[in-house]
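Write out the 3D structure for:
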Amino acid sequence: MPSAESNATARASTPTAQPVAQLSGVSKVYGQGETEVRALDGLDLTVNQGDYLAVMGASGSGKSTAMNILGCLDRPTGGNYRLNGVSVEELNDDALADLRNQQLGFVFQQFHLLPHATALENVMLPMVYAGVPAADRRQRATEALERVGLAERLQNRPNQLSGGQQQRVAIARAIINQPALLLADEPTGALDSRTTDDVLQLFDELHHQGITLVLVTHEDDVAARAATVAHFRDGRVESLTHNKR
C-alpha cells in the first residue's frame, strides 16, 4: 500500500495550475460490519485545469468509485471533494444535479444515446436541462457535431451510425455545455482498434483545445495517450506516471 505521503502528493500536473477537481482524504464505504467494503480509503487526488489524466487499476482498486464521485454520481462517506472550488458534499440533490449538468461531461463505454432521436437531438438534450433557448441549442449542437467530424450526420439516428460515430455523438453531447471536466469511463471498450484510435485522436484534439479530461481504462495503449497515469490500488493512488508527449 502506498504511504500517506505519496498519496497526499498525487497530482496530475504542476501545483501552480488552477485546480478543477480536488479529492482530499476521500473515503467510500459500502455496507457495515462483516459486509463492509472500503472502496476508497483516504484518496487524495488533484486534477488541474488542462490536465489529461488516465486512471488505471485492477478490479476493486477504486477507480470506478473515484470516477463516480468525481462525476457527482455518488457521494463520499468521508473527506472532501471540491469541484471548481465548490464543496460538493454540502450540496443538496437539486444543487448537485445542476452542478453536474453545468460543470461535467460524461462519455461511457455504452453510448447511452436516445435510439429514436437524431444525432442533433441527442446532443441538444443537456442544453434543454440547462434552460438554453431552442435556437441557441440547435446552433451549438450543430457546431459540436461539426467539431467531432459529424457535420453530415446531424439527422441520423443511432442505428444509422457506426459504433465510432455513435461515440462521437456522445462526445459532442458531453462537451456541449463547455464542462470544466470531461469524464470518460472505458470510452473505447466497445470499439475496434481502428475506431479506438480515431476516438483517442479526438480526445487528443479536445485536450489540445484546453479541455480537462479524466479517462478510466484498463488498456495500456489507451492510457499512454494521456499526459499522466494514476495507478490505483486499495482505494488510493499508488503511483503517478508522467508520459512523454
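The radius of gyration is 18 Å.
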